[in-house]
Amino acid sequence: MMNAHILDMTRKLSLSYEIALSIGGSLDLGEMMKRFLKTVVRKGEAYRGLVWLLDGEEPTLVSAVGS
């Protein structure tokens, strides 16, 4: 039981570290978003990821990736 908890916490910490690296890896916002989303999709076992920004009332798609 304790080992499962430690393993889960280690996975979460590893994901947080990889996300931080992907965010800090580029000064270009578009490139950073792509790296961030690729990391989250790959490690989060998702099929795709999207980032939308609200400008007033209109959402704008900033970046999208798929597995």
From TrEMBL:
Superkingdom of the organism of origin: Bacteria
Name of this protein: Uncharacterized protein
Lineage of the species this protein comes from: Bacteria, Bacillati, Bacillota, Clostridia, Eubacteriales
